[in-house]
Amino acid sequence: MGMDRKIEKKKWPPKKIAGLTVSGLFFVIVIVAVDPFDTSSKLRVEEEKITISTVKKGPFQEFIPVTGTVLPIKTIFLDAREGGQVDTLFIEAGSLVERGDKILQLSNTTLHIQISSQDAQVVEQRNLLTNMRFNMEQNRLDLRRQLLEQEYQIKRLKRLYDRRKKLFERNLISEQEFEATKDEYQYQIKQQKLNVESFKQDSIFQEVQIRQLETSLDRLEQNLEIARQRLEDLTIKAPVSGQLTSLNAEIGQSISQGQRLGQIDVLDGFKVRAGIDEHYLARISRGLNGEFDFAGDTYRLVTDKIYPEVRNGRFEVDMEFVSDSPEGIRRGQTVHIRLELGDLSEALLIPRGGFYQKTGGQWIYVLDESGKVATKREIRLGRQNPQVFEVLEGLRPGERVITSTYDNFGDIDKLVLKK
Prior knowledge:
Layout: H1 14-34, E1 42-46, E2 52-54, E3 56-79, E4 84-89, E5 96-97, E6 102-107, H2 109-169, H3 175-232, E7 235-237, E8 242-247, E9 254-255, E10 260-277, E11 289-294, E12 297-311, E13 314-321, E14 334-351, H4 355-359, E15 363-367, E16 373-378, E17 380-384, E18 388-393, E19 400-402, E20 414-418
Parallel strand pairs: 1-20
Antiparallel strand pairs: 2-19, 3-10, 3-14, 4-6, 4-9, 5-8, 6-7, 8-10, 10-13, 11-12, 11-14, 12-13, 14-18, 15-16, 15-19, 16-20, 17-18
Helix pairs in contact: 2-3
């Protein structure tokens, strides 16, 4: 019976151990890279065909895009102050006019007859006033003559009375003769007082009559002046210098009082009238800045007048140029304005891009630290302007996101970037 041999275990050589270790590590790396538990959909994308932007904190100015129409700085409307029939057209629509230029002539026979009648009334009243003043002066002269005569008689009677009084006291004349002289003298004194009072009363009465006639004449003359002004209003003249942009009148046409005949645009400058969504009504005030591009340059505007009436979901504002209006700009042109809302504020920002059309700002592809994989992430955006979006939730400063269009990505969860 042979002796049992002790079997020795074989030792692994160092090279073999090192090889197996490397193989094991490679296997682990492959497992991690492939990650068989990751069931999300992936798509390989060429990096050069996308736009990658960095999330940053910075100053934010909110803008809203609005469309405006160029208008003259001022438009004056021509209304008929007096009705009539169009007799003559002096200027055609589109012509340049100077202040005071005749535009059209109306005729109104009824008004001419009315003025003639008022003119006759004024003449009649003037004649009546003249006669009244003449008669009053004559009466004054007559009364003065009477008073002078009476004064002379009183002086004569006083001398006679004084002389007979002395004679009577010496019993040289009878009492009857003295009393007769005394009575006559006293009567003339009383009569003089009555005549003076009557003269005063007559003068006061006649002056009142004259003032009434003068007041009546003034009123008639004022009415005549108003009527003559109405006659002048039959000639429609340019109230300002500018361009007669419209004229709604034809020869023989009947025009009513107050009817709109046309308008004149003042050519000293322009303004812009913009329509804005009613959502912003509470945030629009005077003094807001806006800008637009024209012929290669940028021009600034400022809100001046706000029309709060909402029509079809929009309201209007007038904006004036901060400096001179652009050379070559014309009435009726459309301009696209970037209107500022509020002051500058610090915010988390990402650039605008085509991704918004696909996601509506509800999610975005965010790159990992390696920059090789971009994953969908829900976000919430706030305010915006033509350059950037404000980020409210979902992103941190320094993270990188894909902001170009997502049209070719379908509903893929992850994008794997390749050079």
